[in-house]
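Technical annex B. To support the medicinal chemistry partners, we prepared a structural model of the target in complex with heme C, based solely on the information shown next.
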Amino acid sequence: MLKLLKWIDYLTHGREGVATSWPLPARIVVVCFLFSVGIGFISALVNLHFQEAGPGKVLPDGEDVVRAYHGEPGKTQLERLLSAPEALPFNGSGSMRAAFTEKKGGGLKSAMKAVAAERSMDLAIPAEAEHAKAEVLRRRDGERLALIAWIRSGAPESTFDEKGFELKGDLAKLPITKDYLVHGEGGTVKVHLQAIVTDRCCRCHAKGVGGSGAKYPLETYEDVKDYLIPDVNQGKSLDHLALTTHVHLLAFSVLYGLTGMLFALTAWPLWMRLLIAPAPILFAVLDISFWWLARLDEPYGPMFAKAIMVSGGLVGLSLGAQIVLGALGLFRLPGKIVIVLIMIVGAAIGLGIKVKVVDPYMAKQIAASKHLVD
Ligand code: HEC
């Protein structure tokens, strides 16, 4: 079999490792090209982190890709906006969770003062101020979870106003600002959800407040009801998919076509070039087809959405192999040593960035989501 393949290659081409005999400047250009593709790929991963990964996660996991590509059919838009990761865009297709946090919460100072008064803390002491802030955020998150519980219970109009929505079981233990609690008879804990929506949302979502949020008032139950219709399908919309598909496919074909072609011309054994050279293009096509298949109904849609992690990972692995092996495969031993040294320096810089920038950032993100009760 291998002999046959070699023979075919010999007949149709004849010479192994064409690129090894290219003039040095040409090979240097190729190495620069491969390395810049590598850096580009890493920044694509950073973008993926910001677009789709949940808080405290480096890259999206199964849950994140299913949410992004399959959507959450049956969930109402309101629940989705209240539960999706805060890092998503602050609009109707992303997340409104930031309205409960430091990012867009507002009124944090006065809420901290209230907590400080209640617990006789001194906000002038940084540690106590930090503590008061954490408590405010914990309570706000409790309010958010109470709203979600109400939505999941069918969002009945009768429990939205000051009569209160009863928090049962574990929900009764949610930390919630006292002002919103309505203590009913027999020790039941009820919460005034409309007041929460007014305080957390109507700063932007009320007629006449200005800003783009004012177009979507949330002042009454009737207003809120517009966002309580279960969605049939979300995930990526068809026009979004059509756009990203053609942009990605055209760009990737050129990019992976070039890296693959260069790899195919190196001096690595024929079987290796046969396997690795076309791999990124093939996996990228597979990956994009999974984007579309992820729209299918359960159980297939979520399965294809999760498969995106596999196909995406394979694109990354095979491209990485092309970059590393491709650069090495262009040179004889002395050149190979130089390439390895460059890669070691690159990896050291990457490690430095990880320790100095990425790790503290992730730790901060995890700390910020710690006060959340899930
Ligand atoms: C700091 C201002 C602000 C706060 C606070 C805020 N939002 Fe928003 N909201 C926006 C903006 C801006 C948009 C995007 C509007 C647009 O698409 O033009 C938006 C969009 C929405 C939409 C989608 C509207 C539509 O039909 O496209 C909903 C629903 C929503 N917000 C709910 C909420 C809820 C619930 C809260 C409270 C927990 C909240 N928002 C708090 C600013 C805010």
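Notes passed to the chemistry partners:
The chain has a mean pLDDT of 87.
The pocket of heme C is lined by residues 77-78, 81, 91-92, 96, 99, 104, 200-201, 203-205, 212-213, 216, 218, 227 (CB under 6 Å).
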